[in-house]
Each structure stands twice: as C-alpha cells, then as structure tokens.
Amino acid sequence: MVRNLLKYGVLALSLVSSLDAAAQTTRRVRGTVERLDGDTLIVQSRQGEALRIDLAPNFTVGALSKGDLSAVQPGAYVGIVSTGPRDRMRAAVVTVFPEGASRANEGQFAWDTLPNSLMTNAPVESEVTGKNGHELMVSVKGEKLAVEVPSDAIIAVTTAGSPAMVTPESKVIVFAQMTENGALSASRVNVGRDGFTPPM
C-alpha cells in the first residue's frame, strides 16, 4: 500500500525505503486513545497494552463513521472483511473509501479482524438484493467475485478527518510500522467519529 492512499483517507500502510522495509513489519493497533503528547500517541490496545506510537509531524487523520448500504453503490471503492471460501465470501465489514481514492492497493489478502478472514480492496461492479441480504459483485484486478453482505454486516464510511479528532477515549486503528526492537511509528491515524469504533 502506498502513501498516496493515506492522503485520501484510505485504510493503508506507509511506504518505507527498501532498507527500512527489510527491518520493519506492520502492526495493526486497535484501541482507545489515552493521550496525544505532541507527536507521540499513547493507545490502550484491545489486548490491554499501553502502546506508544511516534507520529510523523504532518500525520493525517481518517474519520470513520457508521453508514448503511446506500453508501455501497456501483463504482464505489471498498474494503471488505469477509469469512468463508473465496467463492462464497460473507462480509462482516464493508468500508467505503472516499471518491477519488487511489486504487493502488486493489487486491485480496489475509486479515485479522476475525479468524481466517480476508480483506478485499476492490471497486463495486454491481449490487443486488438477495434472499439473505445484499450481494455485491466486486472486481479484483479484473476478476469478478461475489460477496454476500448480510443485514448484520457493519458498514463504515471513510472521510477526511483532522488531528483535533484524536482525543482521549476516541477509538482508533493505526497501521504502524514496527522495528525489530518493537518501536512503533505511523503517518496516519484512523479514528471513529462520534464514538464509532473502527470495525476493521
């Protein structure tokens, strides 16, 4: 995933140099903000850890709010957390990215929101109402895949936020770079708007 995705509010990872990438891995930090001290974010993770994340001086913020299926229209670019086999995917979370967002991260890969879950980043080709909810047809690099979206699936909408939203008790997900000694850094914070907990 590339830095351009962060500019448009997309759930994404920052690019690092090839030398840094060899020594770093990505850690998805989900939790509650304890405080923001300058460029240092302290997050109480869902696992109970107090984690320190060094933020870039010009860090950006993505705001996530609760949406509904009306936001999932043909042409929308989405990130889908799903379970089940690839030919019978069932969505647990659908995140709608902003119009004009870079699609450089289009693809499908393992995720950790749920056991054995997948993340699919792709444009929506079509949307229909089925007997068990809605069904989306997405196109992953030209390959069309059907995804069932049950009525209890969480729909999240991403918009641009501001650092002022990163306050104590706000819920966040941060895609942080972790060095071999465990130090965390990030150039973006994704925060839930109005108490919403980022679901992915």
Brief overview, please?
The chain is mainly β and 200 residues long.
How does this model look, in words?
The chain has 200 residues and is mainly β. The protein folds into 2 domains: 3-62 and 161-195, Beta Barrel (OB fold (Dihydrolipoamide Acetyltransferase, E2P)); 65-157, no CATH class. The chain has helices at residues 3-7, 18-23, and strands at 25-37, 40-45, 50-66, 77-83, 89-96, 107-111, 117-130, 133-140, 143-149, 154-160, 171-178, 184-192. Strand 2 and strand 3 form a beta hairpin. It is elongated and about 50 Å long. The protein starts with a helix and ends in an 8-residue tail after the last strand.
Oligomer: single chain
Any guess at the CATH architecture of the largest domain? Beta Barrel
Let me know the CATH homologous superfamily of the largest domain: Copper binding periplasmic protein CusF
Q: Number of DSSP strands?
A: 12
Task: Give the topology string: H per helix, E per strand.
Answer: HHEEEEEEEEEEEE
How much β-strand is present in the residues? over 45%
Biggest pleated sheet: 12 strands, mixed
CATH class of the largest domain: Mainly Beta
Task: List the total number of helices.
Answer: 2
Provide mean pLDDT, rounded.
87
Instruction: Please report the distance between the alpha carbons of the first and last residues.
Output: 16 Å
- Total count of domains: 2
Q: Output the radius of gyration.
A: 17 Å
Helical residue percent? under 10%
CATH topology of the largest domain: OB fold (Dihydrolipoamide Acetyltransferase, E2P)
Q: Which outline best applies?
A: elongated
Supply the helix-strand structural class: mainly beta
